[in-house]
């Protein structure tokens, strides 16, 4: 009976040691799980902040593109007006050449001024068109970035 009792005590001791070992493992796994949860929450917050930043940049670039487009439209209208004026000045210049040589110098000066204005408008419109194209390229880049963010958020976790 004593031998059996000693054998059972030995088994009980072994089971207690095994239970303590498993309890330690369980505590370690719980700590690791909590650390992973905290890490995932921080990553989610960082990702959300990045998405908000990208959205703000997208809105800003959209405003810039709209402004550049409006500016390009105004410059095109001004360009058309100046071209019409230039045509009128040229017609008037030709009329003056045929009969009135005194007014010829004034017409030439007016035509030169119109030409300078036209060249200025053309230069400005080219710059605005370049800005518009640049803005469109930036918007495309942001759209591609947002697509890649969606892909990242859809990737399943292998370990969980």
What does this structure look like?
The structure is a single chain. With 160 residues, the protein is mainly alpha-helical. The chain is 93% helix and 0% strand. It contains two helices and no strands. The two termini are 51 Å apart. The mean pLDDT is 85. This is Endosome-associated-trafficking regulator 1. It comes from Crypturellus soui. Belongs to the ENTR1 family. InterPro entries: ENTR1. Keywords: Coiled coil.
What's the topology here?
Elements: H1 2-99, H2 104-154
The arrangement of helices and strands along the chain is: HH
> Termini distance?
51 Å
Which range best describes the helical content: under 10%, 10-25%, 25-40%, 40-55%, 55-70% or over 70%? Answer: over 70%
The secondary structure category is: mainly alpha
Strand content: under 5%
Coarse shape: rod-shaped
Cα-atom radius of gyration: 39 Å
Query: How many individual β-strands?
Result: 0
Largest sheet features: none
Specify the number of helices: 2
**What would the average pLDDT be, to the nearest integer?**
85
Q: Please mark out the parts with pLDDT under 50 across 5 or more consecutive residues, or reply none.
A: none
Keywords: Coiled coil
Family: Belongs to the ENTR1 family.
Organism: Crypturellus soui
GO biological process, one term: positive regulation of cilium assembly
């Amino acid at each position: 009976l004593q031998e059996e009792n000693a054998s059972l005590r030995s088994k009980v001791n072994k089971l207690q040691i095994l239970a303590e070992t498993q309890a330690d493992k369980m505590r370690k796994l719980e700590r690791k799980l909590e650390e992973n949860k905290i890490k995932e929450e921080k990553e989610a917050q960082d990702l959300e902040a990045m998405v908000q930043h990208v959205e703000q940049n997208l809105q800003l670039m959209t405003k810039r593109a709209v402004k550049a487009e409006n500016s390009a439209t105004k410059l095109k209208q001004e360009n058309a007006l100046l071209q019409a004026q230039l045509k009128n000045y040229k017609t008037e210049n030709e009329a003056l050449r045929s009969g009135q040589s005194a007014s010829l110098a004034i017409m030439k000066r007016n035509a030169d001024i119109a030409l300078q204005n036209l060249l200025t408008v053309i230069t400005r419109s080219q710059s605005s068109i370049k800005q518009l194209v640049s803005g469109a390229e930036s918007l495309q880049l942001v759209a591609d970035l947002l697509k890649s963010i969606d892909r990242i958020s859809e990737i399943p976790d292998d370990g969980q």
